[in-house]
Structures are given as C-alpha cells and as structure tokens.
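Interim report, section 4.2 (structural modelling).
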Amino acid sequence: MQTTRRILIAAILAILAVVLTPLAAFAEDESIKGRLEKIDGEEREPVGGVTITVELDGEEIGTAESNDNGEWEIPVPGAGTYLVRLEVDTLPDGVALTDPEKFELPDVSVRNNQNKTTRFNLGPGLTSGVSTYERVGSLFVIGLKFGAIIALSSIGLSLIFGVTGLVNFAHGDLVTLGAVIAFWFNAAGGGPRWHILLAAVPAVLLVAGFGGLQERNLWRPLRNRGTGLVAMIVVSIGLSFVIRYAILVVFSGLPRPFRDYAIQDDIQILGITTVPKNLAIIGFTAVVLALIGLFLTRTKLGTAMRAVADNSDLAESSGIDVQRVILVTWIVGAGLAGLGGVMFGISEQVQWDMGFKLLLLIFSAVILGGLGTAYGAMLGGFIVGVAVELSTLVIPVEFKTAVALAILIAMLLVRPQGLLGVRERIG
Amino acid sequence: MDLVKILIDAGRTAVGVPAAAYALSSIGLNLQFGYTGLLNFGHVASMLVGAYGMAITVDSGGPLWLGVIVGIVAALILGLILGVPTLRLRADYLAIVTIAAGEILRLTVRSSWAAPLTKGIFGIQQFADPFFDVNPIPVGLYGIGRFRFDERTMWVLLLGWGLVALATLFMWKLTRSPWGRAIRAIRDDEDAALSLGKNVFGYKLQSLMVGGAIGALAGMFLAIDQQNVNPDAYIPLLTFYAFTIVILGGPGTLFGPIIGSIIFWFLFEFLDGFMTAAVLEGWFGDVLDSTDIGPIRFALFGIGLMWLMIYRPQGLFGRREEMLIGEQ
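Predicted structure of the assembly:
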C-alpha cells in the first residue's frame, strides 16, 4: 500500500515535471537578483548604475545594471551553480564593498523556479566618512580629470566652429570612435592586443584621418554649394546617427573596459585619496594642451588657424590658403577628440554612446569659454568638469549633467560670447 | 520572402498610430522649423512634458481632460524657458540648448528624486481608461485581409487623424494671418523683418511655444495609445524623426507633415520588415543577426536625413525657390 502510493506520487510528480519544465524554461523562471544598498550607520541608500555579471563555467550568462532603487535581476537558463560578480569599477564614487575581496560570489546555487537573492555588502567608500577637505579634494581631482577629458574633446569643436562657422553635432561621436578603435587594438578578440598607450596612437591617427576625410568629401563640397548654416547643422546630426549606430552594430551595446588600468588601488597624496590614472590623465592632458597652445601661437600654421577663425576673408586676402587651414583644423580637432575618447575609456569604460553623452558637457564647456576659441574650450572644459563633480556634494548624482545645462543657460543669459569670446560672433 | 505581407504591414503603419502621432508632432515642428526657421533639436522634450503632464495629473487623481490641459500648459512654459535665453542669439544656440534640455528632462523624470511623481524608470500606466471607456465603435475588425484594425485602434486612429485635421486647419488659419506672414518674413530675412519694426524675438518665442504645444498633443496621443509613459521612450531620435518628416514633406508647407509622415513610416516599416526577412533567410550569413536590424535602420535613417537636407531641402515635391532654409 505504502509503496503503491509512493509510486503514484512519484509518477504524478514526474508528469508534472515533464509538463512544467518547458513552461518554466519559457517563462525563464530562474533568476538571480538582489538589491544594492550603501549602508552607512543608520542611513541606507540604494546604489544604482552598478553592473553585475553572472557566469557559468567561465561563460558569461548575463549582465545587468542596478536601477535607481538599487535593484537588479539577471535571468539564468536553469538550476545550477553560478558565479555572480559585482563590477567594482562601476561603483559610484563614495561607495565601496565593505570587504573588497568579496566582489565575486563563486557558488550561488539556484534551484528550479527560484529567484535567488544574493547580497553584496556596500558601505561608504574612502571618500565619505572622512573630512570635508578630503571629500572636496578627491572630487576636485576627479573633476579635473573629467575636465581634462572635456577640454581635449572640446578644442576641435570650438576650432572647427571658429574656421567654418559649423557647430558639429557629430563631434561627440568622434570621441566614441577614438575609444572604440583603441579598444580594438587593445582588447578585442581579433585585435593585436597592444598596451593601451600604444593602442591610443592608431586610434588618434585614424580619427584624425576620418576628420580630414569628412572635411574633404562632405563639408568642403557643401560649403562650395553655398549650403546654409541651418542645413549644415541638420546634416551633422544625421551624420552623428550614422556613426553612432554603425558603432552600435560593430561594438554592440555592452560597455567594456580596456585591458590596462581598469582597476587600480587607491593612493594618497596630500591627504587626498584617488587612483593613479586620474593624476596621469590630468598630467598628460596638461602637456597636450600646452603643446596645442605652443602650436597655435608659435607655428605659422597655428597663427594662420587663428587668423582664419578671426576673419576668414581678411586671412585669405593676406595670402593664407583658407581651405588648407580648415582641413588641418579638422584633422587636429578630430584627432584630439579621439584622444579624449581614449582618455574617457581609460577613466571609465568604452560604450557606444559615450561621446554623445559627453556632447552636452562639451557644448557647455565651449559656450562657457567662448565658441571659436581654443583657450576658451580648455578653460571651459576644466570649469565644467570640476563644477559637475563638486555639485554631487549638494545634489543627487543623477543631476550631474543638469549642472552643465544650468551653466550653459546662465552663460547665455549673462555673457553669450563666453569668457574669452568676442561679442560680434553671436548675433 | 513574402513581399506582399511586408508591403501591407508597412502600409498599415503608414496610416496607423505612429504616422498620425508623428504627423501631429511634425506639424508643431513645421511651425518652428519650416515657417519660422527655428532649429529646435529638443522637440521630444515637448512630447515628454505633454505626456508626463497628462499622466501625472491622472495618476494623482485628476480627470483626463485636466491632464490634457496641464500637458499643454507645461509645454508652453517649457517653450518660454528655453526660448528666452536663446532666441536672441544665432540659430545654433537654440539647437544646443534644446537638445541638452531634452536629455536633461528625460534624465530628470527617470531619476529616483522625481520617482514619487513620475514612477522613475517604471513609468506610469493605465491613465487613459476614461478615453477607451467611451469608445463608440462596435467590437470587430475593420478593413480588408491583413490590412485591418480592431475597434480600439480605430478609436485611437479617429482621435489621432482628427487631431491632425484640426491642427492642419489651425495652421492654415494661422499661416495666412498677418502673424503667419511675419514669421515667414523672419525666416527669410530676419534683419529685414527687424528693420520693419517687427518684434522678431516675440514672434520667435510665440512660434516656439505654440509649436511645442502641438508637439505636446502628439506626445499625449502616443501615451494614450500605449496607456504608458516611460522615460526611455523619449530619446533624442524622436526629434529627428520629426525633422526628417518635415523635410520629406516640404518645410513650410501646409500638408507637408502629413505627407512626410505617411511616406516616412511606410519606408521605415518596409525597411524593417525587409531586413528582418532577409536576415531570417540568411542573406547576410553570420555578419548580421536580428538584433543588428534596429541599429542599422537608424544608421540608414541618418543617411536619409543627410541626403534629404543636402539634395532635397525643399522636400520631395517642393520647388526649390520657395525653400530658403537650405540657402545662405
């Protein structure tokens, strides 16, 4: 009697299992989920924008980003033991794992139909819970680094505007292009896997060449046809869609870091905690900007560039080959944007729309400093970078970019020609 | 590959909800860009404030009609805020500020800070029930063969194309008024209009605000159809759908946005159906898979926008001498 009942129950369970398994598979019932919270004493604060990856036997199953409530969920193909990893470099500033070793949970076992909850313990990072000086100091360094990236990326936009009058809405995508090309040389499966500093060279050269090609084959013919400003701007936004979505097809939507310098240990300088790569980016950019300053003031070509930006008719009548100057401006400007993209990729990750997201900051930097001026773009870049980062002391991180817009609008109301701009150009 | 099926599906979209919504949205942009020459790169922002204005009002317990009014007022205020600092300056400043404002607005409604009102990344749903409750169309399918709509879609379409017709009538009256002549004069020669004593800044601001209100109506219409507002729907791309439609149909023409929208959605859906079928049949081998179709379609869209602006800035059927936006 006992045995028959057991067999009967077993048979029913087996049938149920057979019937339900495909349904379960269809509904993707198994998943791993969790909620990221920064716990700082009594305070609990959800942590959004952090990437979590799930792997099975070294193969990536899925990845997710925690939402603004800190929640994330990754469907998995079935029951089993998975590895769950928190991508430490996606943690926002001021948030860190309480145990830095525990960024990977190697054996998370998931049963059938289970939505397994896993937990990463997050606490205040080294930047909070410390003195205001240290918090402001480390944000200031991050701001300077971000400003350096913006400055590098902005000069081209400003100079191209200066010599041709075009506001290039596809400029942000040149930044992405630089990062993506460097990624191919540095970390892609079929690439040569060079060190990132070496990979930056072809990236900058190729983006510079692309800028030159653009000028020769698109913008110069359009200028010769007498195409108006408004039409050119619309063409540039069309071009930005072409570049951006072509990158999305080739690179895919997944953000990925370079192989080098992705994760670094903190160092302390003058009581301020930061990572070495931030200082390296600031230092390197400072040298590049100084060289550009020398180029613009000391070389014949640089002086010609400023002359054309000032008054292209006068420059032409004094014997300057304006078309050639414009071509060089495009090549230099695009190359610098590509370099900015490589720096941006080192600082964060490579992503298909990173340049478009940066474009707003580039615009506010350029308008703050004065459209058409190289020094204005540099100055504006640093001011915007620092202001945006320091603003996170008082307003939610999500509104970082809104600060840039506020600067932009305030500047247009007060002094539309920018800090270093000339009044006549804006009307 | 079933070409007939793809063509019919494309045709259905070309008279369906997207075409009606973007015809309406483009009528607003046409007033700004086609008639006044304003480079508003943040048209999506007015669609967003319209949709969210309505959804939040209903979600907090207000009636739908009040939501519609809130949406329109919100769009008018948005136009005012964006116009005042930029409209005295060159065209590109407006473009920069509006494209930035559109993204900032999207990030704002998406943020956890605004989530008590906007429900953050989850968005607001089921706010248009009163509209569907009064659907007078009997249950059933209307049309021939695959080219069919159910009673719900018919009711939505009636609203959509009805709004398009009303907006077109409004534009017909508006552009033939002295006000309409003034904004066209500003587009063609701002200095001349200024020297005749016209308040150029005021006209531009009014055009930006009214166009934004029409855009807000389009945003609300789309939201009503989907019974859903979600921040990630309002990406900058939507603005440039409207730009392409306006240029396709002919900027500064009365029926341009309607014709442009129908052609645009037909081509867009056809391309999508064609490429999906081609990928399924293995035309591209391993080079492309089905997830690449979306991005490729957007890249082709970018090429289309560039081509139109360079070669046919007056629209597919327009006469060049009437169209001055492409000229210096």
